[in-house]
Amino acid sequence: MREEFEKMAAAGKLERHHIESLVQLTTSGFCMHRSWGFGRIKTVDTVFARFTIDFPNKAGHTMDLAFAAESLKPIAKEHILARKASDLEALRQMAATNHLELVKLVLNSYGGGATVDQIQQVLVPDVIRDDWKKWWEAAKRELKKDGHFQVPLKKTEPILYQAKEISLQNRLMEEFGAAKGLKARIVVAGELLKSAHDLTDKNAAATEVPSNNGRRFNPKWSKP
After folding, report:
1. What is the pLDDT of residues 177-187, one digit of tens each?
2. Rounded to whole angstroms, what are the CA distances from 108 to 81, 90, 101?
3. Whether 41 contacts 25, CB under 8 Å
4. CA 195 from centroid of its chain's CA atoms
5. Reported pTM
6. CA–CA separation, 148 vs 168, rounded Å?
């Protein structure tokens, strides 16, 4: 479409500084508007210089190209919202068979991090139609074991995805060292206790982490 937009600019139908934004919008085919939300670009009319876009509550909405260039943000085809619009069944299959890949997709869609509430909001009810709580508990257990995800203790803090893998034990030990105050350390020690069977070096954890009564944390105390 770049060539078409160049011709329109030469004919005075477009400002040249709008061309790059319009190329990005037509390449992705998806967009975000501040008030109307996520949209799917259906057609490009080079005669009347306008888009036809489907927004959630504005199906078939027409928008002047210049206005679109200034008010719309392109959304990548791999963004979770775009995937929901173009291949919802594949996402539902992913939710059933690959929790980590689906969560990774959501996190990458929002710059590498999202809170539990944000993840739930984008997946329920379109992708996950059954018991969200049950699904999330299973997914969270997998996230904690996988070295690419940082799962904070507070629900209000974002879950993060990182390319470099860090073991569960190292993450928990780092969190323990960074925890401020006895109460915060007790919380992390509790996570170590719950994750005892997944630790790579239980003796090191037992040596480093004291419990709230002054005794050393010992993974052997955990229930089978």
Report:
1. 666 676 666 66
2. 12, 17, 10
3. yes
4. 25
5. 0.74
6. 10
